[in-house]
């Protein structure tokens, strides 16, 4: 097989290249490395692992491949629309953070026949001097959408690559469990521009995290979920695994981009308003992040949707 100047195009769905990872940030790059041999895609070009053969997006055929999506939530709909216009993949694995992904997936009618697995990744990755640095063990929580066979395949694929895998009963439940970590850790560590472990090192941050989680439990309950994992004890355990990590929202801010967690906070506040629930800790967190963005000269966009 040759590069974009060559005569041959990539053949996907074979034993050589069965996985395509869309999103070449630190987490997507680490996942692609774990899934080798695979193809890692950026917005305009892609390359194979481990051989680094370069391709244009136009040269890719998703047919028969499993596509893993590891992009920011704000880019997810564009990626789904792009995939829906091509030869459809054998299955989709959405690793982006956020709630309501199944509804977003269902809005793309061409994709409804494609098996979907939600995969929430519970570890951190950052790039330091060109090298990927992973904090904590590779852990994943997965849930499928009416495709048990495909869910089991993805679970086995990850376990064979050394991931610790937890299976959840539903996509929504998996997402609510993960949102607690995103909101508490990404918000507070970003506000003080520090590694995640700072939350355990400062009592005022620990107390603030507990208050955020308490409000999330109330919102989750109104959505029909009683989630014990939205607790400070669970958060402490998580931080013991990836406390050294610089979370993705702080990495966003340091690159002059709006932190993804702010979009999640805004949507949670819309959800709270819809239910008539007072959430002062979530509101303060959003206000503080908006103020920090303005101080850094980072443009922010207000979410108007209750769906994350």
Describe the structure.
The chain is of the alpha/beta class. The protein folds into 2 domains: 19-168, NAD(P)-binding Rossmann-like Domain (Rossmann fold, 3-Layer(aba) Sandwich); 174-296, N-(1-d-carboxylethyl)-l-norvaline Dehydrogenase, domain 2. 44% of the residues lie in helices and 16% in strands. It is built from 11 helices and 11 strands. It has helices at residues 26-34, 73-84, 101-106, 148-160, 171-191, 198-201, 203-222, 232-242, 248-254, 260-275, 280-296, and strands at 19-22, 38-41, 45-49, 54-56, 66-69, 91-94, 116-121, 124-128, 131-135, 139-144, 164-167. It has a 9-stranded mixed beta sheet. Strands 8-9 form a two-stranded antiparallel sheet. Helix 1 (26-34) links the parallel strand 1 and strand 2 (38-41). Helix 5 (171-191) crosses helix 9 (248-254). The radius of gyration is 19 Å and the shape is globular. The N and C termini lie far apart (40 Å).
């Amino acid at each position: 097989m040759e590069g974009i100047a060559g005569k041959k195009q990539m053949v996907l769905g074979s034993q050589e290249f069965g996985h395509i990872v869309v999103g070449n940030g630190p987490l997507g790059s680490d996942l692609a490395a774990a899934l080798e041999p695979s193809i890692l895609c950026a917005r305009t070009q892609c390359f194979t692992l481990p051989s680094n053969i370069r391709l244009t997006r136009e040269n890719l055929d998703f047919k028969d491949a499993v596509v893993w999506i590891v992009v920011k939530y704000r880019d997810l709909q564009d990626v789904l629309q792009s995939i829906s216009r091509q030869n459809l993949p054998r299955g989709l694995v959405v690793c982006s953070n956020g709630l309501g992904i199944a509804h977003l997936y269902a809005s793309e009618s061409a994709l409804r026949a494609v098996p979907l697995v939600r995969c929430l990744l519970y570890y951190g990755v950052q790039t330091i001097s060109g090298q990927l640095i992973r904090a904590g063990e590779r852990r994943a929580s997965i849930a499928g959408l009416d495709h048990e066979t495909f869910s089991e395949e993805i679970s086995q694929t990850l376990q064979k690559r050394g991931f610790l895998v937890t299976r959840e009963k539903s996509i929504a439940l998996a997402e609510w469990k993960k949102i607690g970590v995103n909101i508490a850790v990404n918000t507070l560590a970003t506000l003080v521009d520090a590694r995640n472990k700072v939350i355990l090192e400062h009592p005022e941050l620990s107390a603030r995290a507990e208050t955020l989680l308490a409000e999330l439990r109330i919102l989750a309950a109104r959505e029909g979920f009683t989630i014990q994992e939205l607790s400070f004890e669970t958060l402490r355990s998580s931080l013991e695994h990836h406390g050294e990590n610089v979370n993705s929202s702080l990495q966003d801010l340091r690159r002059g981009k709006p932190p993804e967690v702010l979009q999640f906070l805004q949507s949670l506040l819309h959800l709270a308003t819809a239910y008539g629930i007072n959430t002062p800790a979530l509101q303060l967190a959003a206000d503080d992040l908006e103020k920090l963005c303005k101080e850094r000269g980072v443009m922010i966009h207000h979410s108007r949707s209750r769906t994350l």
